[in-house]
Design goal:
4 copies of one chain form a homotetramer. In chain A, helix 1 runs parallel beside helix 5, helix 2 runs parallel beside helix 4 and helix 2 runs antiparallel to helix 5. Chain A has 9 helices and 11 strands. The first copy, chain A, is an alpha+beta fold. The longest helix of chain A has 30 residues.
Chain lengths: 383, 383, 383, 383
């Protein structure tokens, strides 16, 4: 069955991503936004156990009743949960136990998927798989953070996803004003926040065919962009000063040279022709202001993306993360998936080298708070 | 001259608003968002001194060189300033000194305005007057907060702006889908954030002809709306629980009855037919969700407002505060006026009983963080 | 009657201390340790109303029932109270109201004291007077802080208590080892923490006959004492670095010169021969370490004080604030006076130019947290 | 050689204590006071590498230059260090690496100790061994905290140190007033804070021959001792209310019964006849006040300890942690050992079931902040 083989290969990938880790790397939570890798492995498993197996597989034996408390993330509907800042305090369940948990749930899922499930369960299962793929992307962010902020700068692997981040040839693409259709159209899976397809009116605009490079971003640094308030939003300026921000995440200025943490271990020189990455929305907007340009809206991006190459890094847009006209939440825990985050976050469009290929679609709406930058993101200019 | 008489009457009004205050009321800052009334009186004066008199009136004698430090608000361009949380720590300059400062600047302005100033100065002056009117509105918020959070609940005045907040007859107004024009059109003063006029496409929608009343809001409270996470944004739910929010600001539940602070002094019973006020965006959105409705966008509001009565309270919209297409900041300190706040805030539309009549226009974009509620706001449903 | 005239003159002095203030100065609370002067005036009055008049004067009419909430300081026994950090948010009662409150209570006290009260009430009254005198001293600290931290550096008065802080001739006084008696002996008023008189054994020691001067302290600064961790307690070193402490409170380094806030207004040059003042215990201990000396214990101080001149500044001792053998708290609210503070504070001995003359006794135990320095304190070395 | 065999057996014990742990247990830091077990193992090793091997063994090859940064604790003299709250964020070095580090240093120490080192090095070595034994005790505290605060309440081991905590027969021992000698006397190792031996005068006192039991402490709880401010120091009362403290650490009230975490895993009923443990100084003092008694001073304890049984739990005393007369710090990093903590901490006397037997001496001065309670402590009354 296709569903089962999909299930198994997606589930396997989460473990493959973690293969290069030492047990200790699975446990820590250096900042609140990062979760311990073992938590991701457990939480994605808990999703299938809670929403598929327990309600639908009568013979299912719960692995451990306490895991609901440990591996629930933010689903208020399904009971108490470990608060996010406490995840890195839990040495148990061990990594070995989490892998046993995965095997236990996988086994039950295999027997459950022997027969074709009914449509509503199938939809839930597909959501669960997309959910696990989102956590695979987060796993990549979090692993990089855990290793890249360790004073020993340990290696992740010789081969990795950051090997080709070169920017495209820069040019301006012109798009005419008019009414355009926005949002997902089709019958494959998409998230509720991509629905419903609707019209928007866009004025004329131009958008760059390339992401901003490290070379261009270095000019901003050298021109003292981080020290000039006039490029920054008021709250961004506070953020810069409170946190003494002076360069993208993972960059270090050592003996007069700009270095960055590299997944092969250690600090390596900045690659000038690579797209700049790991910047906050604040920095993206400040850079655009310094350039005399602006960020595109998510609607401009969606229309332009049909004509340009995109997809190595998530691209910050000017748009706030808000519901599309006619948006409505699903009932129950599943309804907590997206809608409740629709305030004070910024939309990113595109995909990154850390994204599952089947998530790479033109209507996908990613979102982060404007101060965050540990995800694989970058910046494209518009005017 | 019209400009001078405008100047004088606007300047006078700030003082009239403060007339019922005791000297002590001018000094305190009970929360960071509230500024001491004497600070408002000084800061609005500093605006004219700094941007009109010093650069343009050669004979002008600065009142006190230290006042630039004390009364600058957030203009990074014009030097160091007292940080916002420290304003309530300053006993000097005294209230009497601030009134002397006002008189000194007014006198200089009178002589300056004997002759018609050139156009660019005139524009600046008009901005200064609008700026003072905005601070008059803030003065009303802040004075209410200062008195309404004092354990003695002192009176402001027998006659005041809250005397008629009754809601209109409720009905649904239907608006057809189509392309609409948004933004200020005309030659009178408007703020930079209302420009430029541009097209948007709106789908069909319905909007209520009335604000939500205290009576309706009480049903939400009684139905345990504040205890049910499913109506709340994730960050709103944290806000409710961290701050133990269970009713609008100024409401008190005493001996089984709902009371509220009244500007005539003391606590009085809730007026059921009045519009609910002093709620955060979070509460407005949670109420709408509980009702199975939603908030209008700012564009829906602007189009609908031509056909409904509005204006007793600022109305929360679903829209994030973002630049209109083609928005650009003015150079220099004036450019800091609006643009730098365009992240993580929500737009409110309309006007309130605290608003200067000449600010009451259909394109005016007010904005506050979604957790704030000390301003005169309310809520209108859409679907 | 002596008691009445004492009462009246002590009550009068609190008002005299505040005479040079503007109304605004009575209201603010720039840091948590400082209380608004009007609060001191109200709180000391509340003490007499609550502990003398209400329980003992049948005809007494309470001035305002809400004042118990506003002016209670830390007496948990007597109901809810405004938390310390909120005092500066209260514009009401006004200063005029507080003076009316004082007059109202004074009048009642006058009629109450027409007849000699019984002994237990008399004791309470004397405690109340000593309590007001302690607040007079705090008033002087707080007023200095309020004016001395205002960017306009306003004057308090031409004549003031800091005019003669010159240090004595420095010498070492030698005291022999032996058993000594410590604690109050006599029949006049003393605080419960000075009782009971008891024996301690002291080894040989030497103590300086003079306080440390500004001149000596400047050498410590110039020798980079604030930058060398080895002189500092671990928590002191954190305090220095977190708060960027580099000199005593009220000192400013301007254009290469050391200035300090002066009660006559403005910043004036440091007086080299004056005793150094407004330093924390941490700084006192670090200075002593840098000198290769130490601070005296409170017992050494009490014995030595019979033979040396002391009393311009409170002197930090090495001793922690702990109960004397046999110490016991009085029952009820009065018992909250001292005992509950006997943890994590340091004893200071002596008196300061801000101290009421009748508090100047050799057994008086003052106490502050080791990081505080807004009180009039100084430092004497021992070895 | 005795020194070498001592070295090896002490070093071995640290590893034996950790034997029951899973790798994950070595990594986490659930509160700032707890350090990850792997950090203890590394830090104690770093001590020998830094203070013995590097300065004295010419042929010594440093294991990893970055470890100085990772494993330095608070020695400002020896360079930058990971701040205490960050220790639980470090997944590397791995546990295996730390054990390799230990083996590497042990090997070098073995060759170094082939020949008798000179006296000053020997003293340093003995300090290093005592230092490691102190960390063995901390290891036991921290491991208990890590396991006992995990929602799965995992077991440490079947056999463990808490098996016999029964209290002795209660009686009052009377000690006469007089001059007594306090402090270490002898030629074996002691810490600098136990020196110098000196005289103190003690008044008559009585001290209990038994620690307070869980049974007695439960009466305090049932009598609402945690809800009555009058037993608590002012800052203790804040601590109780801010942290909602209502019982000792590790206690849980489940279905009407008092349970506690047990090292064999899970929650078990309170043993009524065991000594109460894991309470703060605040709680110890509040209990004593409720009983109408007090805590002994450290001097009373030291004198009484010659005549009573003691040693299952550290005993809170009333005494603040201060230098003895004539105390002086050693020069260099070693001088940072004790003196710099001599402010705002309380002395505990005795020893606990977690203490190395050779640390069990009557003059040993342990110290903790008054709010801490994760160490093995208890309470003995005096009057």
């Amino acid at each position: 069955m296709l569903l089962l083989s999909n299930y198994l290969s997606i589930r396997k990938l989460s473990e493959t991503i973690c293969e290069p880790l030492q047990i200790e790397d699975y446990v820590v939570q250096p900042i609140v936004d990062v979760s311990p890798p073992k938590w991701h492995l457990g939480h994605t498993t808990w999703f299938f156990e809670t929403f598929i197996l327990k309600p639908n597989l009568i013979a299912y034996q719960e692995f451990d009743a306490d895991y609901n408390y440990v591996f629930n993330s933010y689903y208020e509907t399904v009971g108490a949960r470990v608060i996010r800042t406490d995840r890195g305090n839990l040495s148990r369940p061990t990594v070995a136990d989490v892998y046993k948990y995965r095997a236990h749930v996988n086994e039950a899922m295999e027997s459950f998927l022997c027969t074709e499930p009914e449509e509503s369960i199938k939809q839930l299962l597909i959501l669960g798989l997309n959910h696990e793929q989102q956590h695979q992307e987060l796993l990549r962010y979090d692993i990089k953070y855990i290793l890249g902020h360790n004073p020993l700068f340990p290696a992740y692997a010789e081969e990795h996803i950051e090997q080709d981040l070169k920017v495209e040839q820069q040019d301006w693409l012109k798009i005419d004003a008019g009414i355009y259709e926005i949002g997902y159209e089709g019958s494959d899976f998409c998230f509720d926040n991509e629905l419903r397809r609707h019209k928007v009116y866009l004025p004329d605009f131009e958008i760059s065919t390339a992401l901003v490079s490290n070379e261009e971003y270095l000019e901003f640094i050298k021109d003292k962009g981080y020290q000039d308030f006039k490029h920054w939003h008021a709250e961004a300026w506070d953020w810069v000063n409170t946190n003494k921000i002076a360069c993208p995440l993972y960059w270090h200025f050592v003996d007069g040279k700009w270095l960055r943490y590299d997944l092969t271990g250690g600090l390596k020189p900045i690659k000038l022709k690579d797209a700049v990455s790991h910047i906050s929305f604040y920095e993206a907007a400040a850079f655009a202001s310094w350039k005399g340009k602006r960020l595109p809206t998510e609607f401009e991006w969606e229309i332009a993306a049909k004509k340009i190459k995109w997809g190595k890094l998530w691209e910050w847009t000017e748009s706030a993360y808000l519901p599309y006209p006619g948006f409505s939440k699903a009932p129950g825990a599943i309804g907590e998936y997206n809608g409740k985050f629709m305030v004070n976050q910024k939309v990113l469009r595109g995909a990154s080298v850390a994204t599952s290929p089947n998530h790479k679609r033109i209507t996908y709406r990613n979102f982060f708070h404007p101060n965050l930058r540990w995800h694989y993101n970058g910046l494209r200019l518009a005017k």
